[in-house]
Write a structure and sequence with these properties.
This protein is an alpha/beta fold. It is built from 16 helices and 12 strands.
């Protein structure tokens, strides 16, 4: 790119931001405007008739007119700078390469935090907003294992699986990227404000929506194409048949990305989508090594031994001796621990409250990696 072209793009930045407020102007139409007018500044200042003659439909021209009445490009740039937000246009050398390979890539990205070259190896984790204890535990193990292997974990900052994935990656010392469906000055859900700030310390938060954009329902299906598009593989952990994860999976397949699924109980509504996708040919995930294999990343992290968890009673000690990370039914546990079903049931209920065991559905239990309360 010539020096004059770079200068033009820099001067055009306020107009890139301004045009991002026109919902019907995406990458293709931005390219059309640049080609027709030479710069987005010239396109912004063009008359209605000139815009119409450029090949835009009357509906798009009308949308541009409406935005031009209320938006001041230089003021838009000032607000972005004041919010400590970085803007990456399609022409920026730091614009994620992965997005250049998808249909309908965002012409402009708003970024807080840092995108690094190492982030090129990424895996997206998505799933239900109402995970079971099993889903949370699997998410923690996969996200932390990926992070320990140098893979950046991508998710959507939503409640449930998304939040657990971001948190686990950060706690493992890894990097994580959140892609949200609002402007970067609006954290949604509000309770993830602290998580949002932590991500900025070792990762990035991205959005294609300008500042002030609310988390409207129609934003999230479009956001999902970016969740799948940024990574080589998308991992689905617990999702019902009507889950938004279904749209992310569809986008991943259209983008020729890998789709991997964690199996769940056949009785759990939160595993209906993942189990169905596995039936249809999605790769089944039994551990982080399966994801790393798809990413062609070697050096899977060593599985740390289960930590010692103090037992307060003899019954707890006997159950801890036989509990593992593999789900076991209460009947099997009671036999292995030489206890009655009644004894095992009462003891497991207490241990579940302490956080030393997790019930993963239909009276199947696994040993937790940490005990949350004592």
């Amino acid at each position: 790119m010539t020096e004059s072209a770079v200068t033009t793009i820099e001067h055009d930045l306020p107009y890139w931001i301004a045009f991002s407020r026109v919902p019907s102007v995406g990458r293709v139409r931005i390219g059309l405007l640049e080609e027709r007018f030479g710069s987005l500044k010239a396109a912004w200042e063009a008359s209605t008739s000139e815009l119409g003659a450029s090949g835009l439909t009357s509906a798009v021209v009308s949308a541009i007119e409406q935005v031009r009445r209320v938006v001041e490009p230089e003021r838009e740039l000032e607000q972005v700078c004041n919010a400590n937000v970085r803007v990456l246009t399609w022409h920026d050398s730091n614009y994620p390469r992965a997005f250049r390979t998808i249909d309908d890539p965002p012409p402009i990205l708003y970024v807080k935090g840092t995108l690094e070259p190492d982030d090129e190896v990424r895996a997206t984790i998505v799933g239900t907003r109402s995970p079971t204890p099993y889903g949370k535990e699997v998410t923690r193990q996969l996200a932390s294992g990926l992070a320990e292997s140098g893979v950046a974990v991508v998710s959507g900052l939503a409640r449930g699986i998304d939040g657990v994935a971001h948190d686990a990656a950060l706690k493992a010392g890894g990097r994580t990227v959140a892609i949200i469906g609002s402007g970067l000055d609006i954290v949604y859900p509000p309770e993830h404000r602290s998580l949002f700030e932590r991500i900025l310390g070792n990762g990035a938060v991205l959005s294609e929506y300008p500042l002030g954009s609310k988390p409207d329902a129609q934003h999230f299906p479009r956001r999902n194409r970016l969740l799948s598009g940024l990574s080589a593989a998308t991992v689905v952990i617990e999702a019902g048949l009507k889950s938004g994860a279904r749209l992310t999976v569809r986008s991943a397949l259209e983008q020729n990305r890998e789709v991997l699924c964690v199996p769940g109980s056949i009785y759990s509504p939160e595993s209906e989508l993942t189990n169905a996708l596995i039936q249809e040919g999605a790769k089944l995930v039994m551990g982080v090594e399966d994801v790393l294999e798809e990413l062609h990343v070697s050096g899977a992290p060593r599985q740390e031994p289960l930590p010692d968890i103090a037992a307060d009673t003899e019954e707890e000690a006997r159950l801890l001796d036989v509990l593992t990370q593999e789900p076991q039914h209460i009947d099997e546990l009671s036999r292995s621990a030489d206890m009655s079903i009644t004894q095992a049931s009462g003891t497991l209920a207490v241990m579940e409250i302490k956080g030393s065991v997790l019930q993963v559905g239909r009276m199947n239990y696994i040993r937790a990696r940490t005990a949350s309360v004592r």
